Amino acid sequence: MNKREFKDNVYTELSKVAKAMANPHRLEIIDLLAQGPFSVEQIAGYAGMSVANASQHLQTLKNAKLVKVSRNGNFIHYTLTGANVFDAWAGLRELGFAYNAQVEKVIHDFRKGHNSGMDAVDAASLQKLLDQDEIILLDVRPEEEYNRGHIHKAISAPVEKLESFLRKLPRGKMIVAYCRGPFCVYADEAVALLKGKGYKAKRMDQGYPEWQLKGYPIEISAEQ
Question: Does domain 3-86 have CATH number 1.10.10.10?
Protein backbone atom coordinates (compact mmCIF):
# COMPACT_ATOMS: atom_id res chain seq x y z
CA MET A 1 0.00 0.00 0.00
CA ASN A 2 1.47 3.36 -1.02
CA LYS A 3 0.94 6.57 0.91
CA ARG A 4 -1.88 7.75 -1.35
CA GLU A 5 -3.80 4.51 -0.84
CA PHE A 6 -3.13 4.76 2.90
CA LYS A 7 -4.59 8.25 3.13
CA ASP A 8 -7.54 7.42 0.91
CA ASN A 9 -8.39 4.39 3.04
CA VAL A 10 -8.07 6.22 6.36
CA TYR A 11 -10.14 9.22 5.28
CA THR A 12 -12.75 6.96 3.71
CA GLU A 13 -13.22 5.06 6.95
CA LEU A 14 -13.38 8.24 9.00
CA SER A 15 -15.88 9.76 6.59
CA LYS A 16 -18.28 6.93 7.47
CA VAL A 17 -18.46 8.34 11.00
CA ALA A 18 -19.11 11.85 9.71
CA LYS A 19 -21.72 10.55 7.27
CA ALA A 20 -23.52 8.66 10.03
CA MET A 21 -23.77 11.87 12.07
CA ALA A 22 -24.79 14.04 9.10
CA ASN A 23 -28.52 13.71 9.72
CA PRO A 24 -30.70 15.76 12.10
CA HIS A 25 -32.57 12.72 13.40
CA ARG A 26 -29.37 10.84 14.17
CA LEU A 27 -27.89 13.84 15.95
CA GLU A 28 -31.01 14.00 18.11
CA ILE A 29 -30.68 10.29 18.85
CA ILE A 30 -27.06 10.76 19.95
CA ASP A 31 -28.18 13.66 22.15
CA LEU A 32 -30.90 11.48 23.67
CA LEU A 33 -28.64 8.47 24.25
CA ALA A 34 -26.27 10.71 26.22
CA GLN A 35 -28.86 10.32 29.01
CA GLY A 36 -28.39 6.54 29.05
CA PRO A 37 -29.94 3.45 27.41
CA PHE A 38 -33.28 3.59 25.60
CA SER A 39 -35.36 1.13 23.62
CA VAL A 40 -36.13 1.85 19.98
CA GLU A 41 -39.75 2.51 20.97
CA GLN A 42 -38.69 5.11 23.53
CA ILE A 43 -36.33 6.74 21.05
CA ALA A 44 -39.06 6.89 18.42
CA GLY A 45 -41.47 8.47 20.90
CA TYR A 46 -39.06 11.11 22.16
CA ALA A 47 -37.74 11.94 18.67
CA GLY A 48 -41.19 12.13 17.06
CA MET A 49 -40.65 9.45 14.42
CA SER A 50 -41.96 5.99 13.60
CA VAL A 51 -40.36 2.94 15.17
CA ALA A 52 -39.30 1.79 11.69
CA ASN A 53 -37.51 5.07 10.96
CA ALA A 54 -35.88 5.14 14.38
CA SER A 55 -34.67 1.58 13.83
CA GLN A 56 -33.11 2.52 10.48
CA HIS A 57 -31.28 5.50 11.98
CA LEU A 58 -30.05 3.37 14.88
CA GLN A 59 -28.76 0.77 12.45
CA THR A 60 -26.79 3.43 10.59
CA LEU A 61 -25.27 4.64 13.86
CA LYS A 62 -24.56 1.06 14.89
CA ASN A 63 -22.80 0.32 11.57
CA ALA A 64 -20.59 3.36 12.18
CA LYS A 65 -19.83 1.99 15.68
CA LEU A 66 -21.38 5.05 17.35
CA VAL A 67 -24.06 3.10 19.23
CA LYS A 68 -24.26 -0.42 20.54
CA VAL A 69 -26.99 -2.82 21.62
CA SER A 70 -27.41 -4.13 25.15
CA ARG A 71 -29.80 -6.92 26.09
CA ASN A 72 -31.52 -7.57 29.40
CA GLY A 73 -33.71 -10.63 29.03
CA ASN A 74 -36.28 -9.82 26.36
CA PHE A 75 -35.48 -6.11 26.44
CA ILE A 76 -33.14 -4.51 23.89
CA HIS A 77 -31.68 -1.09 24.55
CA TYR A 78 -29.33 1.17 22.63
CA THR A 79 -26.48 3.11 24.20
CA LEU A 80 -23.61 5.25 22.96
CA THR A 81 -20.49 3.18 22.30
CA GLY A 82 -18.45 5.46 24.53
CA ALA A 83 -18.37 8.89 26.16
CA ASN A 84 -16.26 10.17 23.26
CA VAL A 85 -19.30 9.85 20.96
CA PHE A 86 -21.04 12.51 23.00
CA ASP A 87 -17.79 14.51 23.09
CA ALA A 88 -17.75 14.52 19.28
CA TRP A 89 -21.38 15.64 19.10
CA ALA A 90 -20.76 18.36 21.70
CA GLY A 91 -17.78 19.60 19.69
CA LEU A 92 -19.83 19.68 16.50
CA ARG A 93 -22.60 21.54 18.31
CA GLU A 94 -20.15 24.16 19.60
CA LEU A 95 -18.80 24.58 16.09
CA GLY A 96 -22.33 25.31 14.91
CA PHE A 97 -22.85 27.85 17.70
CA ALA A 98 -19.58 29.58 16.81
CA TYR A 99 -20.05 29.91 13.05
CA ASN A 100 -23.75 29.53 12.25
CA ALA A 101 -25.68 32.51 13.58
CA GLN A 102 -28.94 30.88 12.54
CA VAL A 103 -28.57 28.36 15.37
CA GLU A 104 -28.63 31.09 18.00
CA LYS A 105 -31.51 32.84 16.21
CA VAL A 106 -33.66 29.71 16.21
CA ILE A 107 -33.02 29.19 19.94
CA HIS A 108 -33.65 32.87 20.74
CA ASP A 109 -36.91 32.98 18.79
CA PHE A 110 -38.18 29.79 20.40
CA ARG A 111 -37.44 30.88 23.96
CA LYS A 112 -38.79 34.36 23.40
CA GLY A 113 -42.03 32.87 22.10
CA HIS A 114 -42.31 30.47 25.03
CA ASN A 115 -41.53 33.02 27.79
CA SER A 116 -38.54 30.96 28.94
CA GLY A 117 -36.03 33.78 28.50
CA MET A 118 -32.43 33.84 27.32
CA ASP A 119 -30.80 34.61 30.69
CA ALA A 120 -29.70 31.02 31.22
CA VAL A 121 -27.32 29.93 33.98
CA ASP A 122 -24.00 28.33 33.01
CA ALA A 123 -22.47 25.39 34.85
CA ALA A 124 -19.85 27.37 36.79
CA SER A 125 -22.41 29.91 38.01
CA LEU A 126 -24.84 27.14 38.87
CA GLN A 127 -22.25 25.37 41.02
CA LYS A 128 -21.58 28.58 42.97
CA LEU A 129 -25.30 29.17 43.50
CA LEU A 130 -25.72 25.61 44.76
CA ASP A 131 -22.74 25.94 47.10
CA GLN A 132 -24.24 29.13 48.54
CA ASP A 133 -27.73 27.59 48.78
CA GLU A 134 -29.19 30.46 46.78
CA ILE A 135 -31.38 28.45 44.42
CA ILE A 136 -33.65 25.45 44.13
CA LEU A 137 -32.52 23.17 41.32
CA LEU A 138 -35.13 21.12 39.46
CA ASP A 139 -34.37 18.19 37.18
CA VAL A 140 -37.37 18.21 34.85
CA ARG A 141 -36.42 15.11 32.85
CA PRO A 142 -38.41 11.88 33.25
CA GLU A 143 -37.83 10.26 36.64
CA GLU A 144 -36.08 7.25 35.05
CA GLU A 145 -33.36 9.54 33.71
CA TYR A 146 -33.05 11.37 37.03
CA ASN A 147 -32.52 8.04 38.79
CA ARG A 148 -29.70 7.09 36.41
CA GLY A 149 -27.81 10.20 37.41
CA HIS A 150 -28.49 13.83 38.22
CA ILE A 151 -26.82 17.03 39.36
CA HIS A 152 -25.92 17.09 43.05
CA LYS A 153 -28.75 18.66 45.13
CA ALA A 154 -31.23 18.52 42.22
CA ILE A 155 -34.85 17.63 42.95
CA SER A 156 -36.75 15.40 40.53
CA ALA A 157 -39.72 17.31 39.12
CA PRO A 158 -40.69 15.85 35.72
CA VAL A 159 -42.17 18.62 33.61
CA GLU A 160 -45.49 16.83 33.15
CA LYS A 161 -45.92 16.71 36.96
CA LEU A 162 -44.46 20.11 37.74
CA GLU A 163 -47.73 21.97 38.25
CA SER A 164 -48.75 19.62 41.06
CA PHE A 165 -45.28 20.13 42.58
CA LEU A 166 -45.53 23.93 42.77
CA ARG A 167 -47.04 24.12 46.25
CA LYS A 168 -43.78 22.70 47.62
CA LEU A 169 -41.68 25.50 46.12
CA PRO A 170 -41.00 28.74 48.05
CA ARG A 171 -41.82 31.83 46.04
CA GLY A 172 -38.95 33.94 47.34
CA LYS A 173 -36.15 31.80 45.98
CA MET A 174 -34.77 31.56 42.45
CA ILE A 175 -35.58 28.25 40.74
CA VAL A 176 -33.31 26.82 38.05
CA ALA A 177 -34.52 24.02 35.80
CA TYR A 178 -32.37 21.75 33.67
CA CYS A 179 -33.04 18.80 31.39
CA ARG A 180 -31.15 16.85 28.71
CA GLY A 181 -29.19 19.64 27.07
CA PRO A 182 -29.38 23.04 25.36
CA PHE A 183 -31.96 21.85 22.81
CA CYS A 184 -34.16 20.00 25.29
CA VAL A 185 -37.41 21.95 25.70
CA TYR A 186 -38.47 20.44 29.03
CA ALA A 187 -36.55 23.16 30.87
CA ASP A 188 -38.11 25.87 28.69
CA GLU A 189 -41.59 24.51 29.41
CA ALA A 190 -40.79 24.40 33.13
CA VAL A 191 -39.45 27.98 33.21
CA ALA A 192 -42.47 29.27 31.27
CA LEU A 193 -44.84 27.52 33.70
CA LEU A 194 -42.99 28.77 36.76
CA LYS A 195 -42.88 32.35 35.49
CA GLY A 196 -46.55 32.17 34.62
CA LYS A 197 -47.28 31.22 38.24
CA GLY A 198 -45.24 34.09 39.62
CA TYR A 199 -41.99 32.31 40.44
CA LYS A 200 -38.51 33.57 39.65
CA ALA A 201 -37.07 30.99 37.28
CA LYS A 202 -34.24 30.38 34.83
CA ARG A 203 -32.97 27.40 32.90
CA MET A 204 -29.49 25.94 32.87
CA ASP A 205 -27.84 26.74 29.55
CA GLN A 206 -26.88 23.11 28.96
CA GLY A 207 -27.92 19.82 30.60
CA TYR A 208 -26.96 16.85 32.69
CA PRO A 209 -24.50 15.25 30.17
CA GLU A 210 -22.55 18.52 29.84
CA TRP A 211 -22.47 18.94 33.62
CA GLN A 212 -21.13 15.40 34.01
CA LEU A 213 -18.60 15.93 31.20
CA LYS A 214 -17.13 18.94 33.04
CA GLY A 215 -16.63 16.89 36.20
CA TYR A 216 -19.10 18.67 38.48
CA PRO A 217 -20.72 16.69 41.34
CA ILE A 218 -23.44 14.22 40.43
CA GLU A 219 -25.62 11.75 42.30
CA ILE A 220 -27.16 8.40 41.35
CA SER A 221 -30.41 7.39 43.01
CA ALA A 222 -30.44 4.36 45.27
CA GLU A 223 -32.93 2.61 42.97
CA GLN A 224 -30.19 2.13 40.35
Answer: yes
